[in-house]
Design a protein that fits this description.
5 strands, five-stranded antiparallel sheet, 31% helix, Heat Shock Protein 90, alpha+beta, 3 helices
């Protein structure tokens, strides 16, 4: 398993830096920028780093762990001992959807205590590309419109 990490400061500008860093590390691991997996992981990273920066005001550490089978685990650790608080955004709300997105996009996610703080993690499995699941493919029983 390969692990890379980035220290993130308590500044909203760090979210963009974390996304750029993640894209370069994904490309270096063989996950192409044009793969849906890359976009999903960058969005998950953006949400988790944003939560750490906005809700804790503490520095954080972003880690990506690349499994031999192709799956990726993302962890964001911070010094706050407050557990994550999923919220439900209504209509025109401009925030409050982060953990809902993580729940909808990741195959698994959770959090645990880490030292005096916590780590929020998510995992995305890399599905093998088969003729039925490649770009432009139509799933069995589906009609392309």
């Amino acid at each position: 398993m390969l692990q890379v990490q980035l220290e993130v400061g308590p500044d909203p500008a760090e979210v963009g830096r974390a996304r750029r860093w993640a894209r370069s590390r994904l490309a270096g691991s063989g996950i192409g920028d044009d793969e849906p997996l890359a976009e999903t992981l960058v969005l998950l990273i953006s949400e988790l780093v944003t939560n750490a920066v906005v809700h804790t005001g503490c520095p954080a550490v972003l880690r990506m762990l690349f499994a031999a089978e192709g799956g990726v685990r993302v962890e964001v650790a911070d010094a706050s001992d407050r557990p994550p608080q999923p919220r439900h955004a209504e209509g025109e709300d401009t925030n409050g959807r982060g953990l809902e997105l993580v729940d909808g996009l990741a195959d698994r996610w959770g959090w645990q205590r880490e030292g005096a703080g916590k780590s929020i993690w998510c995992e995305v499995d890399r599905a093998p590309v088969t003729p039925a699941s490649g770009p432009g493919a139509v799933a069995p029983g589906r009609v392309r419109c």
